Amino acid sequence: MSSSSPRQLSLGVQLKDDATFENFYAVDGQLNRQVVMALQQQLQPFGEQFIYLSGIQGAGLSHLLQAACHFAGEQGRSAQYLPLEELVSADPAALLDGLEILDLVCLDGLHWVVGRPDWERALFVFFNTMRDTGRRVVMAAAQGPRELKVSLPDLQSRLNWGLVFQVQPLDDESKRKALQMRAKARGIELTDEVAQYILHRAPRSSHDLFKTLHRLDDASLAEQRRLTIPFVKQTLGF
């Protein structure tokens, strides 16, 4: 995070260190790769000012928004990640006021706040201000902008201003490869056989799979053992 964005700390919002574009499994030619490319290009002069992402839980929306903030920081740009589920009880006008000084603002979980008049009015002002100052916004929600239950028509129109993507969840083969990619980044050797064993027995969402990998990594470091099926079985109680 760029030092020119003090709000990140004042809000108590922390970015996950491993929430990077490099850690997001996206294959060339697939839609999710287009999403990553659009986010990486967003801060360029030709980049899209507004990007809207939707997807089911576990598709990686929060990961992508945090990755965009990390990426901005690496470029020396200021950015703010706002997890709206955690901030829903905040005063929205005060929370969003002044964010136009930042190069990028990422709003995660719009579905948590739409339908509330105070939030909708504050978001309407926020989007107008960000547009007028040429700043960038990434927003994410469980539904697309047309399916979101927005009460304020003017806000509904602003959600459709830029690029809209539906982030695709990983199929089983992609989950295996993503798990192995994360393992490699941690310096862990995860064979196809062991990865398949984990996939068949651990919770299926990508988020839960990566939490399982983190747990296995900690255990293997503590016991100085490789990830084998017997070790995974012992550690996870399968």
Order of helices and strands: HHEHEHHEHEHEHHHH
CATH architecture of the largest domain: 3-Layer(aba) Sandwich
Q: Determine the number of helices (DSSP H or I, runs of at least 4 residues).
A: 11
Mean pLDDT: 90
Describe this structure in words.
Helices cover 46% and strands 11% of the residues. It has 238 residues and is an alpha/beta fold. It folds into two domains: 7-166, P-loop containing nucleotide triphosphate hydrolases (Rossmann fold, 3-Layer(aba) Sandwich), CATH 3.40.50.300; 172-236, Orthogonal Bundle (Helicase, Ruva Protein, domain 3). A five-stranded parallel beta sheet has the order 2-3-4-1-5, sandwiched between helices. α8 (172-185) crosses α9, α8 (172-185) packs parallel to α10 (206-223) and α10 crosses α11 (229-236). The longest helix has 18 residues, at 206-223. The protein is elongated and about 55 Å long. The protein starts with 6 loop residues before the first helix and ends with a helix. Residues 1-9 have low confidence and may be disordered.
Concise description?
With 238 residues, the protein is of the alpha/beta class. Helix content is 46%, strand content 11%.
Give the arrangement of secondary structure elements.
Blueprint lengths: L6 H4 L20 H11 L8 E5 L6 H14 L4 E5 H4 L4 H5 L7 E5 L8 H16 L3 E6 L11 H6 L4 E4 L5 H14 L6 H10 L4 H18 L5 H8 L2
Parallel strand pairs: 1-4, 1-5, 2-3, 3-4
Helix pairs in contact: 8-9, 8-10, 10-11
